[in-house]
Write a structure and sequence with these properties.
The protein has 25 helices and four strands. It is a multi-pass membrane protein. Keywords: Ion transport, Membrane, Transmembrane, Transmembrane helix, Transport.
Length: 646
């Protein structure tokens, strides 16, 4: 009986050593999530093609193309080795789901849910292990029970008496006002904590659940909210705001495009008759709405947006989705919070959560920045778009494809092309028909398109132990030195320059290596001057894959990307390039920031045990003062923060 466990000891030791070597953190778990999802869905995608009849008159999608398409959709790149009218509707639906699963807003929102889980876990551990925390809970519970015995359970006018918490899907909804109740009757459960004054907010006002032996068992959602304090409630708010932002924009685009594409005959006829397969206008509208928001660029219509060069409604709607889903995503989030801060009563507990997010944005979410950084980001994005738009209009003078457009169409299409080049990969004009200088500019823009977001993220990483970590543990000492230097040096431009140089060193070698390897593999085509195969075209394709943009110079006479004619090995090289590009701005760790309010006080009291009731009451008073929530209204932190109106 004892020999069997011994036989497994070497295996278990090997597994433990592999686990220690792997050192799982958020970055590696995120990468594993992408890789596993791509591998599984590629098998399903390929099996759904080979198990039934062949598509498009006998054309069969190879597994390498199935793998490439699923990787392209998951990383929201948009390069396609096969025209998307070839896969079945079921296969297209797989790509549709992958675009959402790999979207920036969807994946980054998972960070908030993970941090919320870590908060809950830390709260449970604190109450379960701290003797004084349990005694403090008992004292507060007696006080709350005495107070509740003299008040109605559901008062008509709550005033300063908190009403019982209500929840939707387990999430506490922290405020309720008459205005909110009138304008959002569908969300009538937002009633929990609106009327509570900060002076009467208790940090630990709950009755703990004990088992038959008196041991701590479980906390409900309201108790988690009070124990976690204002930061935990801010995370609760983000758990609502982020999914609502994504759902709102995707649904809005669908609501506009689906009836328009189905009813408006010029659009419906183009979709049904311009390619084989009798494409459904409604399905195209659903797919393009999601593709534009996720900035993937894949579309069932092989001509992308070229048939709609003069259709301003489609261009404006999909362009708005591109902006809301990527380019201006952090700006939209801060605008939402700023508007809420002006609408919600300042005495409401919910206002403290909003103020906390405005004054301490990076404590809660990776893509929330302070007011000054948000203004700089908005100005930078608008400046880059305007510059690229101006260059498009100037450099394409005397280009036949552009000169044929009317003036209004030329202006609108030039702007739309700029938005597509920066992130989405949607286009109204084939890239190969543009001026040579414009192709070079597009390649540069595809690489640097993420830099405004990236540098904003790097330069706001000033919180040390309580920030959303961006660097590995071995770099923490260097980060502290850089942060100290930044505080001493008023010229923050030097720090931005340092981040840019570091990012260039991180990126360029990977792009150069992939470019060289693909040139080696494709040497026969390069030497034979095969149509579309040039060294610059391969470089353009590589940068597009790394930047997760999806633009391509293509091959004459075909509507697929240039990589559609690549050798299998070249396609395999591009897949990790897309993955690497998708992960270059992600955090490596997110759990460093989980520090509970009052945790140090309780730990000190547990370490130096004091029986005096007065000492425990002093600790309780200090915890309550720290977590009433009113401190969130102040922006006096190491990172200056401004509201958009300041």
């Amino acid at each position: 009986m004892n020999d069997e466990p011994r036989a497994h000891r070497p295996l278990m030791a090997a597994l433990r050593s592999i686990w220690r070597w792997f050192k799982p953190n958020f970055y590696r778990c995120h990468l594993a999530y992408f890789v596993v999802t791509i591998l599984i869905t590629s098998v399903v995608f390929h099996a759904s093609n080979t198990s039934g009849s062949r598509n498009d008159g006998g054309q069969k999608i190879r597994y390498i193309d199935s793998l490439f398409l699923t990787a392209s959709a998951m990383t929201t790149t948009g390069l396609n080795t096969v025209d998307l009218n070839v896969p079945t509707t079921y296969q297209q639906s797989i790509l549709f789901v992958l675009m959402i699963l790999g979207d920036l807003s969807t994946v980054s929102a998972s960070v908030v849910f993970v941090r919320r889980y870590l908060f809950r876990k830390r709260i449970g551990d604190q109450v379960a292990t701290s003797r004084h925390a349990q005694k403090l809970v008992a004292n507060i519970d007696e006080e709350l029970a005495a107070r509740q015995s003299h008040v109605p359970r559901r008062p008509r006018n709550p005033g300063n008496v908190p009403a019982p918490d209500q929840r939707i899907c387990g999430l506490v909804v922290p405020w309720e006002t008459n205005l909110w109740r009138k304008t959002t009757s569908a969300l009538s459960s937002w009633t929990a904590n609106a009327g509570r004054q900060p002076e009467e907010h208790h940090y630990l006002s709950f009755r703990p659940k004990l088992d038959s032996r008196g041991r701590f068992r479980q906390l409900n959602e309201a108790e988690y909210a009070e124990l976690g304090g204002v930061e935990y409630r801010a995370l609760q708010l983000l758990c609502w705001l982020l999914p609502l932002h994504t759902a709102f924009w995707i649904v809005l685009l669908m609501v506009i495009l689906v009836p328009y594409a189905s009813i408006y005959q010029p659009v419906a006829e183009v979709l049904r008759d311009s390619q084989a397969g009798n494409l459904s206008p409604a399905w195209w509208a659903v797919f393009i709405a999601t593709s534009s928001y996720t900035n993937c660029g894949l579309t069932p219509l092989v001509a992308s947006m070229i048939p709609f060069q003069s259709n301003w409604l489609i261009l404006i709607v999909t362009g708005a989705g591109v902006i809301a889903g990527n380019t201006f995503y952090p700006i939209f989030l801060r605008c939402y919070l700023w508007i809420l801060s002006k609408v919600v009563p300042k005495e409401a507990e919910f206002h403290h959560s909003i103020a906390f997010l405005l004054h301490h944005p990076r404590r809660c979410y990776l893509w929330l920045f302070d007011g000054r950084t948000t203004w700089v980001l908005a100005a930078t994005q608008l400046g880059l778009i305007a510059t690229e738009w101006l260059l498009f209009e100037i450099l394409n003078i005397n280009q036949t494809a552009v000169d044929a457009w009317p003036l209004g169409t030329r202006i609108m299409d030039g702007l739309y092309q700029c938005l597509g080049t920066r992130s989405s990969g949607l286009y109204v004009l084939t890239i190969s028909s543009l001026a040579p200088a414009m192709k070079v500019i597009y390649m540069v823009v595809m690489y640097f398109s993420v830099y405004p977001l990236l540098i904003s993220l790097r330069t706001t990483n000033i919180y040390e132990e309580r920030s959303v970590g961006l660097d590995a543990e071995q770099l923490e000492a260097d980060d502290a030195a850089k942060n100290k230097k930044k505080r001493q040096d008023p010229k923050k431009g030097r720090l931005r320059g340092l981040h840019i140089r570091n990012q260039l060193a991180y990126d360029l070698w990977w792009i150069a290596l992939a470019w060289i390897l693909i040139c080696i593999v494709e040497e026969p085509r390069l030497n034979s001057d095969a149509p579309g195969f040039t060294i610059f075209a391969i470089m353009f394709e590589t940068v597009s894959a790394y930047g997760n943009v999806g633009l391509s110079l293509g091959v004459p006479g075909k509507t697929t990307s240039l990589c559609g004619d690549f050798h299998t090995l070249s396609k395999l090289i591009l897949i990790p390039v897309m993955l690497r590009g998708r992960h270059r701005i992600l955090p490596l760790a997110i759990d460093r920031s989980i520090i509970l309010p009052g945790q140090s006080l309780l730990a000190e009291l547990d370490h130096h045990y004091i029986d005096g009731l007065q000492d425990e009451r002093n600790v309780e008073r200090r915890i309550r003062e720290a977590e009433r929530g009113a401190q969130a209204e102040s922006s006096d932190v190491s990172q200056p923060c401004q509201d958009p109106d300041t």
